[in-house]
Design a protein that fits this description.
Chain A contains five helices and eleven strands. By secondary structure, chain A is an alpha/beta fold. At the A-B interface, strand 3, helix 2, helix 3 and strand 5 of A face strand 3, helix 2, helix 3 and strand 5 of B.
Chain lengths: ~190, ~190
């Protein structure tokens, strides 16, 4: 998605060779107008997959998942929780997820009552890096026995192996921007899906 | 907001005398169509306050903050982060926030570059209980020297003192539903703002 690549080049900040910060529009401050455009793009790419629910991971995935849900005619969004509040007392699907930027493993949970075998689930997240979060979400969809119709990612860091990690699940993956390399502060894109 | 009170009565689950779970539409699964209605209501209540940014707390505030931002003509949303990822390297405003449902204190942070003295900030959150999260957000707005135009809350648990805690800040507070008491599983509402 050309507008996204341009936005990353304009507003993204690189740290070393592995990190690009897009917190001015995606995952700290949210450019809501731009996110609606990302949602429209996911709806275009996954048109025909007939999702019934959008699944994402708290916190950074919520806004783009919501934008996508709106573009699909106001679908429900479910966000997996990485910590269990005392109010979360019911049965859950759960998957362990390693966060490399936070340096710890957390358990992503979704209450069982919100995902059923009849659901067609589109996973949406802000980043695909090592594939930990996405794999955890896929695992939750499998536990529910629901159909996984696709995985939509805003920014893929293709050099960290996330796509390869998802390959065994054999589902359509679409990243709106694919970063192949970060070198001397320069971001090099691969062709998007 | 009558539609919200009806929704809470229909889908909310009470736990004891202090907790009402609304995770089927607000803070785990998100009814995006209904949230747009909540956003419209906040935009109606705070019309004329001319906010430039919507500020909320991760994770549960993000979806309703986004809905409100859309109703205000696609304003930017900022969500305060309760844990600092390794990628958060810049100067931040910060406030300690006690979570009673999680039983711990965390530090809410907003990168300084996203809030300036010229901003007019509308705080939006899903719940007002003891007022910890809202007070932390207000503290962050004050650190930025920005104008606080109001605090919009989806559900206030009026028996937990949050509104009194915010009183010294002398800003308009609007809750779309105000729970006065939970007794024997029955929810009793106070008149909304």
């Amino acid at each position: 998605m050309k507008a996204l690549e341009e936005r990353i080049l304009r507003d993204g900040l690189t740290v070393g060779t592995e990190i690009v910060k897009v917190d001015s529009f995606l995952n700290h401050q949210i450019d809501t107008d731009f996110l609606l455009q990302l949602g429209d793009e996911f709806a275009r790419i996954f048109a025909g997959t007939a999702p019934t629910k959008i699944l994402t991971m708290e916190s950074s995935g919520i806004s783009v998942a919501m934008a996508t849900a709106l573009s699909f005619g106001r679908l429900p969004v479910i966000f997996a929780k990485k910590t269990a509040p005392s109010t979360m007392v019911e049965e859950t699907y759960a998957a362990d997820v390693m966060s490399f930027t936070r340096g710890k493993v957390s358990t992503a949970r979704v209450a069982k009552k919100f995902l059923a075998a009849a659901d067609r689930v589109l996973i949406i997240d802000d980043f695909l890096a090592h594939g930990e979060a996405a794999s955890g979400l896929v695992e939750i969809v499998r536990q529910a026995g629901a159909d996984l119709v696709g995985v939509g990612i805003v920014i893929e860091k293709a050099f960290q192996g996330g796509r390869e990690k998802l390959a065994p699940f054999d589902c359509p993956i679409a990243a709106l921007a694919r970063i192949g390399q970060i070198e001397n502060g320069q971001i090099h894109f691969l062709p998007a899906d």
